[in-house]
Write a structure and sequence with these properties.
The structure holds 2 protein chains of 2 kinds. Chain A is of the alpha/beta class. Chain A is built from 6 helices and 11 strands. In chain A, strands 3, 6, 7, 8, 9, 10 and 11 form a 7-stranded mixed sheet that branches. Chain B is built from 11 helices and 4 strands. Classes of the chains: A alpha/beta, B alpha+beta.
Chain lengths: 239, 298
């Protein structure tokens, strides 16, 4: 099977500090569900930023959909980014736009007409269970509702990869489970899902999910994805 | 062309509809007001120069400076006859002695000319073209034999210093217009940078959702274009009111020189184009500024 993401000896350094990520190598395959775990500060968010093209690595090779994302001219990045859905840790909703308009944003960016985007946006709002809050602005939504708007925005354009950074960090356990079910549903439709979390309890909730664990900027298993359940040495990485 | 492509109604909502750029519309209004006044002054001076030049460019006076009245009359008659025959001269008009006396009356009184004072005979000419050195030489050559006492004066040459002054004033007005255009660009540049900083978070999100630099730029360009349009409209209305007021006052004075400075229809067209030019300049400045800033982001 062709890989959808390939990292080879990737390193990331901010300024002159020591490397935040070192020697990261892994391969992700289409249609799979991946967890990225590790303690706070282990480099999960930095790795995801490389994955959704918010950052270029200091060294190494990153291939997305078979394209070298490291040397790709920046004019060609938007087309690649449109194939990736992102749920940010802090949601990053546009504050002056309604829930509907936030969710419609990726479609508008992609040039979908207003007539064509009405139905999918309404359906996605219903899918995440906030259909009645379509016209609400983010400031008037609860944390869980904002999280669901962020997820709806990430999936509205049916991305090939969905990247979620601590998507359950701000919601109660029931809501966390429901969000995870949304990701699973999307995964069953063929989307590759990568969820960064420090909550190891979530890992058991998704069957056939694979896990990568980061420790101080390095993958603890340099060969790549590990199958859940984690090995005894992987336990206790939360916090 | 991408420069003129506007974002859709929904895309416009990505940037809040409140004024993006703070006092920029009012600063642009002041710039436009001053630019239009400077341009109007320059155009008025040019209109005046053109009108005076059109009146004088082909006008020449031949003086027969001969003390002997009989010989003077003989040479004047011969000169009139010869000048009437050449194609270069459209009209030959000998100035009568009465007219000459009237012209000299302020200096020598109105009792008539004393025969002891030799007064030159004057012949006014309208040429079929400007009084260039070549044309004047042709007339000189013609009169050398038949009126050796003839002196030829092009009216335009008397006003050469005035024309030079008018030209300098035109360049001054043009310089002011260019300076104000530069200041307008600088204002827009600062406003665009400020708007970028204010909306950086939205821009980051749009980038990560796959928006291109062009899509993001168009949002700001439109907003700044609207603000510049507002400023341009206020500026031209205020400037037209001032110009109208001045035109009425110039008309009341009734001076030929002042009236010669009244703007022509194409001068008004140029003034009307200034706000449009201002809007285009503002949008272009915004586009370049924002595109450059976006290129520094990933």
């Amino acid at each position: 099977m062709d890989s959808i993401v390939q990292f080879e000896n990737v390193g990331l350094r901010y300024g002159t500090d020591t490397e935040t990520l070192s020697d990261i190598s892994f391969t992700l395959f289409p249609g799979r569900f991946y967890f990225l775990t590790g303690a706070s500060g282990a480099g999960k968010s930095s790795l995801l930023r490389l994955l959704f093209l918010a950052q270029r690595p200091s060294r190494g090779l990153i291939k997305l959909f078979g394209t070298d994302a490291v040397t790709l001219p920046r004019e060609e990045l938007p087309a690649l980014r449109r194939r990736i859905g992102v749920v940010f840790q802090d949601f990053r909703l546009v504050p002056h736009l309604s829930a509907f308009d936030n969710i419609a944003l990726p479609l508008r960016v992609a040039g979908v007409s207003e007539r064509e985007l009405q139905q999918p946006v309404a359906e996605t709002l219903d899918w995440v269970g906030i259909g009645e809050r379509a016209s609400a602005r983010p400031a008037t939504l609860s944390g869980g509702e904002q999280q669901r708007v962020a997820i709806a925005r990430a999936v509205i354009s049916r991305p090939e990869i969905l990247v979620a950074d601590e998507p359950t960090g701000n919601v109660d356990p029931d809501m966390a489970l429901r969000l995870l079910q949304l990701f699973e549903a999307l995964n069953k439709l063929g989307t590759t899902v990568v969820v960064a979390t420090h909550d190891l309890h979530l890992l058991s909730k998704v069957k056939n999910a694979q896990m990568m664990r980061l420790d101080k900027g390095r993958l603890s298993d340099p060969t790549g994805a590990l199958r859940y359940p984690p090995r005894p040495g992987d336990a206790g990485q939360g916090g | 062309m991408a420069f003129f492509t506007l974002p859709s109604a929904q895309d416009r909502g990505l940037i809040p509809e409140g004024r993006l750029t703070g006092p920029m519309p009012w600063v642009i209004a002041i710039m436009m007001f001053l630019t239009i006044l400077a341009a109007a002054a320059g155009l008025s001076v040019r209109a005046s120069a053109d009108r005076v030049n059109a009146d004088l460019a082909g006008r020449v006076t031949v003086q027969i400076v001969e003390a002997n009245p009989d010989l003077r009359a003989e040479q004047a008659g011969a000169a009139v006859e010869a000048l009437s025959k050449i194609r270069l001269v459209e009209k030959v008009e000998p100035v009568s002695e009465t007219d000459v006396e009237e012209m000299l009356a302020p200096w020598i009184g109105s009792d008539g000319l004393d025969d002891t004072i030799p007064i030159p005979a004057l012949i006014d000419l309208d040429l079929n073209g400007p009084a260039t050195e070549a044309n004047l030489d042709e007339i000189r050559d013609l009169l050398t034999d038949i009126a050796p006492a003839a002196r030829i004066d092009a009216h335009g040459s008397w006003l050469k210093p005035v024309f030079n002054l008018l030209k300098s004033l035109q360049y001054l007005a043009l310089g002011l217009v260019l300076l104000l255009a530069f200041a307008t660009s600088a204002t827009v540049l600062l406003a665009a940078r400020s708007a970028l900083d204010t909306h950086r978070e939205t821009i980051d999100i749009m980038h990560l959702l796959g928006a291109t630099d062009g899509q993001i730029t168009r949002l700001f360009q439109r907003r700044i274009g609207l603000d510049a349009g507002f400023g341009g409209a206020v500026g031209i209305i205020a400037a037209l009111m001032v110009l109208f007021f001045i035109a009425v006052q110039m008309g009341e004075i009734g001076s030929g020189l002042l009236e010669s400075g009244l703007l022509r229809w194409h001068d008004w067209a140029i003034l009307a184009l200034i706000p449009i030019g201002g809007i285009v300049l503002a949008m272009l400045t915004a586009r370049v500024t924002i595109m450059r800033a976006l290129r520094k982001m990933l």
